Amino acid sequence: MEFIVGTFIIILIIGAFLGGDSFGGVIKSGCFGLVVIILLGAGYFWLQNTSKPKTITSDPKSEYSEFKIGQKYGGGVVAYIDSTGKHGLIAASSDQAKASWSTDWEEIRGAEGVSIGTGKQNTSDIISGCKNEGIAAGICNELILNGYNDWYLPSKDELNELYKNKAIIGGFSNNVYWSSSEYNDDFAWGQFFLTGMSGCHNKALWFGLSRHSIRAVRYF
Questions:
Q1: Which residues lie below 8 Å from residue 94, measured CB to CB, with a gap of 6+?
Q2: Model confidence over 127-149: pLDDT tens digits?
Q3: How many CB atoms lie within 10 A of CB 87?
Q4: Composition of the chain by helix, strand, coil, percent to 5
Q5: Could you give phi then psi for residue 69, rounded to 5 degrees?
Q6: Contact, 80 vs 158, CB < 8 A?
Q7: Is the pLDDT of residue 41 over 80?
Q8: 9: Cα separation from own chain's centroid
Q9: Whole-model pTM?
């Protein structure tokens, strides 16, 4: 703005000088100055509006809108998204193995969580209370897949989310899948993926009858 006013004054002075200090010369220079000011002003505002990046205001959740069930992300496939839209569960893209829940009939302290968000602690509790190798929780805990090593055996409700979205996630069989939720000394929760029925299954039957499918998950 100071530049525009200064330019107008200079034009008036030049007009007065060229016009022999006559009033008419000043008027002519003033008219010319107005034209110049209008052009300079238009150019100034055009530069102000085009040189600055525009700020787009959007929904705060929009940066997370890319999360969709079935999306490949975080080493696996998005299997569940919580109410914030920012967090959820990622399932491995295929089953890990078939294994028993444990090899002994004993209660594991702390592995009774069934809700979403309890599977990781359940897995840790199972490993602490059952040192046998090759059990379902141990296989998930030791899994390193696509650069991630924080996989765990899902809780009962987490496993149900996998069942509800099994067609989108892909790779499931029609077998029983283990959860990390213990029912009592002898039984733990599993889910039959043909029908969706959840039930208590013997943790360590002989002859491999307790060897059920495993699908590891991780939290994001």
A1: 171
A2: 998 876 789 999 999 999 999 99
A3: 14
A4: 35, 20, 45
A5: -60, 130
A6: yes
A7: no
A8: 60
A9: 0.69
